[in-house]
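Form 7-S
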Amino acid sequence: MLKADMKFLIIEDDVEAAKYLRNALNEAGHTVDMAHNGIDGFALADHGGYDALVVDRMMPKRDGLSVINELRENGDNTPVLILSALGEVDDRVMGLRSGGDDYLTKPYAFSELLARLEALARRGANSDNHSKYQVGDLSLDRLSHEVKRGEETIILQPREFRLLEYLMRNAGQVVTRTMLLEHVWDYHFDPQTNVIDVHISRLRGKIEKGFDKPLLHTIRGAGYVMRDK
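Output:
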């Protein structure tokens, strides 16, 4: 269930715009912290405890996308709504690739922003709380970001880790390309690229090369499944 009183962090260099948004969210019954540059924003966000973040893209000292990207690399999955005057498709794709969960172009209607934040907060509240997954002799620890097969440690890039985590979370079930685009890449459209094939191939090479038993299986015409058989 969505909490009535949520806690948000606004990272926005336009002080007046940030105050307007804070006041509107306060009136909607929520608690809000603010930061006016990327360095201060990252420090607050990294401390944690927020239901969602609202992050401007272009800010002094440190841009919003680098803030989001480092949070994701640190294992912080707090939902992020990106605010930006940059509204072209390539701009939105870049924001989502950096780890944003949603993207709203300025100027915006507060009612839409609030609805999107509430949707992100619901998604975060309903997310899987398991910290460890196991499929066969392959294990993944979300907190330490450690992946091992047997006694061998496997080093993954951040996107590869998110991909494996999603596949292991849904072990035994077929995961479609659309599901991977939405939950691993945060795309809500098909970019018509081979990005999934490339990452699946790289991941398969790391978790299966040199091992006797395959765990990541391709289901032709359907998607992929992690299983120990």
